[in-house]
Amino acid sequence: MNSIHSVLAQDHQTCDGMFAETEVAVGRADFAAARSEFARFREAMERHISAEENIVFPAFEAKTGDRSGPTEIMRSEHQMMRDLFVKMDAALTQQQAKQYLGLSETLLMLLQQHNIKEENILYPMIDQALGPEQQTILAKLQATGIGRT
């Protein structure tokens, strides 16, 4: 049986792979490929973030009654990521590799710290809090395209 933790952690890895492909394309100065890869990455990240904010977090918050703890911090970090996505997209559009790579480094550090917090702290808390209700949440995640096998 899949858990919310395992499904969302696997989705982190999928997104990370797309992010790395974008950086490889920028390194080759292949901006057409970089823009295409970045669009795929950004779409996958938006799907992941939206699923957390609209499906997973509300279920956890309803179960625990806590709306001001770790989920609030994650939402704040999600907004920081979205802000970086806009700047990174602009750098790719303007073919500014140095600018993109600087922003990419910032995003990488943010993602690494964010994912560690989610995977080591928040997701286990969510799995424990939701118990058997996880299956309903997993079905909703699959409907968004996350966790399909």
Question: How would you concisely characterize the structure shown here?
Answer:
The protein has 149 residues and is an all-alpha fold. Helices cover 85% and strands 0% of the residues.
| CATH homology group | nmb1532 protein domain like
Spans of at least 5 consecutive residues whose pLDDT stays below 50 are none
Taking the sheet with the most strands, its summary is: none
Strand segment count: 0
Number of helices: 5
Rounded mean pLDDT is 95
Beta-strand percentage range: under 5%
Helix content: over 70%
Q: Any idea what the radius of gyration is?
A: 16 Å
Helix and strand pattern: HHHHH
Class per helix and strand makeup: mainly alpha
CATH domain topology: Four Helix Bundle (Hemerythrin (Met), subunit A)
Overall, the morphology is: elongated
The CATH level-2 architecture is identified as: Up-down Bundle
Beginning-to-end CA distance, first to last residue: 13 Å
Q: What does this 3D model show about the protein?
A:
- By secondary structure, the protein is mainly α.
- It has a single domain, classed as Up-down Bundle (Four Helix Bundle (Hemerythrin (Met), subunit A)), CATH 1.20.120.520.
- It is 85% helix and 0% strand.
- It has helices at 4-27, 31-64, 70-93, 97-130, 134-144.
- It is elongated.
- The chain starts with a helix and ends in a 5-residue tail after the last helix.
- The mean pLDDT is 95.
Question: What's the layout of helices and strands?
Answer:
Blueprint: H1 4-27, H2 31-64, H3 70-93, H4 97-130, H5 134-144
Helix pairs in contact: 1-2, 1-4, 2-3, 2-5, 3-4
